[in-house]
Here is the input.
Amino acid sequence: MNNRKKRVMKNKVLNIKKKFNLFNDRWSPKVIAEINNYQVKLTKLKGDFPWHSHKDTDEAFIVVEGDLRIDFKDGFVSLSEGEMYVVPKGVEHKPSAVKEVKIMLIEPKGVVNTGDLEPNNLTAKNDIWI
Amino acid sequence: MNNRKKRVMKNKVLNIKKKFNLFNDRWSPKVIAEINNYQVKLTKLKGDFPWHSHKDTDEAFIVVEGDLRIDFKDGFVSLSEGEMYVVPKGVEHKPSAVKEVKIMLIEPKGVVNTGDLEPNNLTAKNDIWI
Here is the structure.
């Protein structure tokens, strides 16, 4: 089959920055892709999230636009656009952002955003695809 | 502990674009992070890779810089900077790039870049961290 005859499968390509135009709510991760039982999620954050941890899994944060701070009990990291950090399993952390930040998360399917906390008003529904 | 006294953990933040400055070889994925048993890898590609598939796993491609084409037996996708595509488990594909492209891969630890092919001169060593 030559190139001209091949179907262009444009509809399956995800433009990460454009996906952020599809929602405005914060702290509520949206799924854009699954890799086996792992999910890639996008979320917008502003202000402080409560301290929490995920006892069974690491969690990767990638900043797509803006600046993110993640506090730990013994330190903190500041991430700018194009920077990544993996919070290890079981480590208490508190993400925060002075201005709205757009981030991408990589973690297993089923991870609850508020981790080990009792479900609260910031606990987001899972498996919301955009 | 107030902010001023907290340790800044700069050394654990990964700058994805800067990581690409640490290697020049192509088709040889380098690990930058692990999320449990999943790995985030960076690689540079130019030219054509052989047709292959990964029978046990999906494979996510994210273009960090440049343009990537992935051919399938029944179609193809073209990805530019900031675009993502997940090749489903078992699907034959052929990545290629006219000019050098920088890409990020997300997949389980242990995935061999040439998939189901007999190991060949393009088969890269796994678990090379940068």
